[in-house]
Every structure is written in structure tokens, then in C-alpha cells.
Structure prediction request, 178 residues.
Amino acid sequence: MSEKVEVVTVKKMSKDDVDGVMQIEAAAYGDHHWSKSSFMSEISNDLAFYYVLYDEKGMLCGYAGCWHILEEAHITTIAIHPDYRKRNYAQALLHRIIKDCYADKIKYITLEVRVSNTPAINLYTKWGFSSFGTRKGYYQDNNEDALIMWTKNIFFDEFKIPYEKLIKTLGEQITINE
Ligand SMILES: CC(C)(COP(=O)(O)OP(=O)(O)OC[C@H]1O[C@@H](n2cnc3c(N)ncnc32)[C@H](O)[C@@H]1OP(=O)(O)O)[C@@H](O)C(=O)NCCC(=O)NCCS
Prediction:
């Protein structure tokens, strides 16, 4: 018998989601997290694309956000509630973000990540990001360095072919309603 494919919903973040997002934000980042007003201003910013992911039971499990600036996109955040990790939810959100980049003719996607954040670095590496240097002491709470990661041009086969394989594999594990 085939395994049941999980169904999740990924939709644009609205102001009604923000209280739930704040709970995940605190669980994911501890004391050094964004404020509610930061999310409120992000979701009303025309250059920003923020999404939330709900599971089959209607539980808000995670969110991600990105800015589009000319031909570049900058992933600003991605977080999954600790109780819902390792279920492909971050990949579902990342897929949604990259889909928007294609639609908006974005060529390159970048982000910063703490050098110690192995789960996130592995996630981004799996999805075609590579490290291009560090920003020294970028994180003010502990003076930690940020790894700067970039994709290749997302319209080039070097990115696009592995990306399409990842989407196919993801689709076998999870159904994403939008
Ligand atoms: C990073 C994070 C978003 C991953 O979310 P997730 O839903 O658990 O990730 P997924 O299940 O979609 O996993 C996708 C890939 O991420 C990597 N990964 C995720 N968790 C990992 C872990 N604990 N250790 C190592 N790699 C991990 C793997 O490459 C994994 O692919 P695999 O299943 O083939 O091994 C989550 O751990 C999180 O919210 N962390 C706190 C917030 C944060 O650090 N955000 C990033 C800021 S730059």
C-alpha cells in the first residue's frame, strides 16, 4: 500500500496570521526575534512576499519571507515550529518562494544564515544555494558571523534541473494547496 501523502496549505501571510507567527518566531529564535510590528510592516510592503504553512489540521506550522529587488531576491526569514520540523515543511515554503521568483523574472536568490545553523545551511545547500563568503559579526546578539549564500541564475540548467527534481520528490511526499 502506498504511504499517505500529507496535504498542507501555503498561503500569503495576512495580519490574522501574525499572532501565530509570533509564537513560532519566539520558539525558533528565543529572545532575539522580530517584533509583531516588523511582520505587520513586511506584509504591507509591495516588495515583500510572506507565506504561512498550515497542516491538515489547520495548525500554523511555519512561515517564510522574501524581498524582490530588481533581479535579485533576498530570503529574509524561514522558520518551522520545533514540533513540526523534519516534515518537509521548510522545503514546501522555499518552493513557494522560488516559484514567485520565476514569476517575477528574478535571476538570483540570496540570504544570510548563522555559520552555526547546520539545519538551515543544509536546507539551502540542498536547494541549490552555495556559500559566497561571510559577514563578520553580523548577528549582534552573539557577534556570530553570517554565511552569505546565493543561487546560480535560476533560469540556467545548473539550478533549474536539480530544482525540478527536488519539486518532483517533494510532490511525492507532500501535496501543497495554495
Ligand atoms: C531550518 C528549518 C527552517 C528547517 O525546517 P524543516 O521543516 O525541519 O526542514 P525540512 O523538513 O523541510 O528539511 C529540509 C532539509 O533541511 C535540512 N535539515 C533540516 N533539519 C535538519 C537538521 N536538524 N539537521 C541537518 N539538516 C537538516 C536537510 O537538508 C533536510 O533535507 P533531508 O530531509 O533530505 O535531510 C528549521 O530547522 C527551523 O525553523 N529552524 C529555526 C529557524 C532558522 O534557523 N531558520 C533559518 C534562518 S536563516
